[in-house]
Design brief:
CATH superfamily: Endonuclease/exonuclease/phosphatase
Number of helices: 6
Shape: globular
Number of domains: 1
Helix content: 10-25%
CATH class: Alpha Beta
Largest sheet: 6 strands, mixed
Length: 256
DNA sequence: ATGCCCCCGTCCCGGGGA
């Protein structure tokens, strides 16, 4: 079972690239972020005509999440519980082949401090609660997405330069670790304890060419999922495409 | 110190992204 997460930065611009990557990488479940597409504008036919299944939760202009799957998608749950007033489309949960998956677009939080950073932290507290509640199901769970958190300095091309940013902020890192400490595993770091892996390169200043990257997209596995983990990595190739997303897919493989 | 680039939309600029 191949599961990946990819911030595509507009599904309308990238639908062909996404479909091509999905097929080429033999993906079973793809968790997508930043679709930037309202539900009635989501290019679902691009995937349905290929016999794939797709669910999505979007809003105008910003955010938006989706799941594309080779297998049926059931028990879809829209939105992260805990704040009825939160209208940003950043969370979508569903079950595929007995695995509970969540596609997550965590708030960036800059500038920190400020209201956007407060929203990030409160969102992470809600994610902690939901992550805890999900463990009680004893299902294999995969929380995948753009967490907008650089977990460790090694995950950043210039830690000193990023000090004070909402992506390296200690409170944000601690909130990320709090989910890990519930019993979730960072799939990439479980397979590769050392080594530099990036999932994002800015469009500006030749960041891709200079390999000025960040690791901010993650797959967090519950114990029942981690027990089945056989491989994980980042496929940076799509970042070198013509008209690419600024993120690359992070993926993992679970044994059946 | 700032912007570089890219995407969106009652759209040719400004907001948001990271």
């Amino acid at each position: 079972m191949h599961i990946a997460s990819w911030n595509v930065n507009s599904i309308k611009v990238r639908s062909k690239l996404v479909l091509d990557w999905f097929n080429k990488s033999n993906c079973d479940i793809l968790l997508i972020q930043e679709t930037k597409s309202q539900d009635h504008n989501f290019p679902k036919d691009s995937f349905l005509t290929e016999g794939l299944n797709v669910v999505f939760h979007g809003q105008k202009s910003y955010n938006g999440v989706a799941i594309i799957s080779r297998h049926p998608i059931t028990n879809v749950s829209i939105g992260l519980p805990g704040d009825a007033l939160d209208d940003q489309a950043r969370y979508l949960e569903a079950t595929v082949e007995g695995i509970r998956v969540a596609t997550i677009y965590l708030p960036n939080g800059n500038p920190a401090p400020g209201p956007k950073f407060d929203y990030k932290i409160s969102w992470m507290k809600r994610l902690f609660k939901q992550s805890y509640d999900l463990l009680k199901t004893e299902m294999p769970i995969i929380l995948g997405g753009d967490f907008n958190v650089i977990p460790e300095d090694i995950d950043c091309y210039d830690p000193a330069g990023w000090e004070g940013d909402a992506l390296t902020n200690l409170q944000a890192r601690a909130a990320f670790r709090s989910v890990i400490n519930l019993g979730y595993s960072d799939a990439l770091r479980t397979v590769h304890q050392t080594g530099v892996f990036y999932t994002y390169w800015d469009y500006q200043a030749g960041a891709w060419q200079k390999d000025n990257g960040l690791r901010i997209d993650h797959l967090l596995l519950s114990p029942e999922a981690a027990d089945r983990l056989s491989d994980a990595g980042v496929d940076s190739e799509p970042r070198g495409n013509v008209q690419p997303s600024d993120h690359a897919p992070v993926w993992c493989t679970l044994s059946d």
